[in-house]
Fold this protein.
Amino acid sequence: LLALLGFHALTGALFPLGMFPWLMSAAALIFLPPDWPRQLARALRRPVPKASQHVPRDMPPSPPLSRVGLLLLALHFTIQLALPPRTTAGALGLDGVDDAIELPALDADLSRGFTLEAWVYLDPGSGSARIVELGQGADAIALERDGATNRLKLWVGAAAEPVLSEPVALSGRWAHVAATLSASGTAVMYVDGRSAGTRTGVPLPRAGVTRSPCYAGRGSSGGSLRGRLADLRIWTLPRAAAEVAEGMTTAPSGSEPGLCRLYPLDEAAGSSARDRAHKDGRLAPGAAWTALPHR
């Protein structure tokens, strides 16, 4: 029991899980015998024996934990270790047809590098999907998943070919995806905080450009995402590998340097996607909030 309580206290201190660790700590009381309050009261009233007092050696041993209790305890720890940290209280559900977030025009300067990142859940069997698209034509920037190759693609308008990640399994689970481009033209793709592909010599976006239209969950010519989307962030600087990994479990406040768009997508109601850093987006008809926490 002490190990279980210590585990929940540690996860509550390390990860932003809200009330979850404390609720699970309270639920751990089911492993105690039914009369534990009386035993605790008796123990608190019992005088502490002095050094000279005799402590009987024939005290009955504590009852062993039942087999069912051991199985429940093992199952609990297995589930806790298997699930990545929770980072938000909800997500936006998209049907893969015409659902999307219509983002305001982006006038931020991305000519010295940028970072795109989001938590994505792709339904099993879903195909190619645009995660975010900023503008059209020669100045467009987009991050998508290629359903045929299971690779992430980063499109930077002036580049003839996209930056590709290694093949990664993204369907049927929550995954944190990110793409960065440095001022030297080095692009890095990340999946769950781990580098999944690098390419050098990528042309930098032009300065002084306002990119429009902008979407999350689909592109201007299709590629709609079927699944869920949460914690979409756009930065005007390339984030380091350690910062990308930290961002999986630590939500920004919205005032961080270089953070120009921050969409938690946890509203659960309404037709707007709140931006804690700049400007709100508008949900296209059909997009629906889901109360399921994303992981």
Remarks:
- The mean pLDDT is 82.
- The first helix runs from residue 2 to 14.
- Residues 8 and 21 are 5 Å apart (CA to CA).
